[in-house]
Specification:
The complex is a heterodimer of chains A (156) and B (139). Chain A has 156 residues and is of the alpha/beta class. Chain A contains 5 helices and 9 strands. Chain A has helices at 14-24, 40-48, 61-70, 85-94, 123-134; strands at residues 2-8, 28-32, 55-59, 78-82, 100-105, 113-116, 119-121, 138-141, 150-151. In chain A, the strands form 2 sheets. In chain A, strands 3-2-4-1-5-8-9 form a 7-stranded mixed beta sheet. In chain A, helix 3 (61-70) runs parallel beside helix 4 (85-94) and helix 4 packs parallel to helix 5 (123-134). With 139 residues, chain B is α/β, with parallel strands linked by helices. In chain B, helix 1 (12-24) crosses helix 4 and helix 4 runs antiparallel to helix 5 (108-120). The longest helix of chain B is centred in the first third of the chain and has 13 residues, at 12-24. Chain B is globular. The mean pLDDT of chain B is 93. The chains are: A alpha/beta (156), B alpha/beta (139). Chain A binds chain B through residues 14-15, 18-19, 22-23, 25, 28, 40-41, 44, 47-48, 52, 55-58, 67, 72-73, 76, 143-147, and chain B through 23-26, 96-97, 100-101, 104, 118, 121, 124, 126, 129-130, 133-134, 136-139.
Chain lengths: 156, 139
């Protein structure tokens, strides 16, 4: 069961590891990213941030989609973390069972627009958000679980 | 209601709450107490002011900055009040666990023991951690 898919450019760090896993009551985290599996330092750092008693799986996007589709993840209360809107959209399009995407942190970059505290989107990312919303996915902005949910479409 | 109180020499306690809230969001049930910030205010009266805010059925988990320090020592004197649980060794990993599990774990003793155990293993010499890579996990 997928509890939530979160977009956070820092992937797994204090905020995600503690606040979200405790709040969502998950038993497993999937880091879906094409760089981390082949970047030893990044991989080790993410492993060190793993909360006690939680399973942590790191896979590239294609392998993540394959794992989700295979049913191997069904028995877990799963929290998926990706680093970009594009990665989120790839997974959601390939695996429509995901009905909620949380935008947690997307850093400011050239040409991006600040739509909320800590969330900055490029025009093409805004289009991807609209596309996911049109597919019936709730795309919401919250840094931490206790923040009020802001529906992304309403601030585009 | 179960409340948390961070207590320290100086401003560590309020700084700790600032950092906690950055990570977990606003906390309504956490109080702070900074000792020796003003010469005329003594710790005993600060502690009493905190205790007066508690109802009979409330609980208060006090986390002080250092075991054996005067702030912790003063709180030792009020432990005959069964509403109070006292922990020494304020650190971010431990209080984040206390704060995020506060509403989920009904048993206060279990909550405290688990927060202590988990946070102890978060104090690390990271150079060594980088050398011993753990195995990858699979679904």
């Amino acid at each position: 069961m997928i509890k939530l898919l979160r977009v956070d450019h820092r992937l797994l760090h204090g905020q995600v590891a503690f606040s979200w896993t405790n709040n969502l009551g998950v038993d497993s985290i999937l880091i879906a990213n094409d760089d981390v599996p082949v970047n030893a330092l990044r991989k080790t750092t993410i492993k060190l941030a793993k909360p006690q008693g939680i399973k942590l799986v790191i896979k590239n996007i294609d392998d993540s989609i394959a794992a989700l589709k295979s049913g191997a993840t069904d028995k877990y209360k799963l929290f998926i973390v990706v680093e970009s809107v594009a990665d989120a959209e790839r997974i959601v399009s390939a695996y429509p069972e995901i009905k909620q995407v949380n935008l947690g942190g997307i850093k400011a970059k050239e040409g991006a627009r600040n739509i909320s505290k800590a969330v900055n989107l490029l025009p093409e990312e805004e289009e991807l958000v609209k596309k996911m919303a049109a597919q019936g996915v709730e795309v919401e902005i919250r840094q931490v679980p206790s923040d009020k949910k802001v529906i992304a479409q309403n601030v585009l | 209601m179960r409340y948390l109180l961070f207590a320290s020499h100086g401003r560590l306690a309020e700084g700790m709450l600032h950092s906690v809230e950055m990570i977990t969001g606003k906390q309504e049930s956490v109080w702070t107490m900074g000792a020796y910030l003003e010469e005329k205010v003594d710790i005993k009266s600060q502690i009493n002011a905190c205790l007066r805010r508690l109802m009979d059925e409330d609980e208060l988990i006090v986390v002080t900055d250092i075991f054996g320090g005067s702030v912790n020592n003063e709180f030792m004197n009020v432990l005959d009040d069964k509403r109070i649980h006292l922990i020494a060794g304020l650190n971010l990993a431990m209080v984040i666990e206390l704060v995020t599990m506060n509403n989920r774990e009904k048993d206060t003793v279990k909550l405290i023991k688990s927060a202590l155990n988990n946070s102890k293993s978060s104090m690390r010499y990271c150079n060594l951690d980088l050398k011993c890579d753990t195995d990858d996990e699979e679904f």
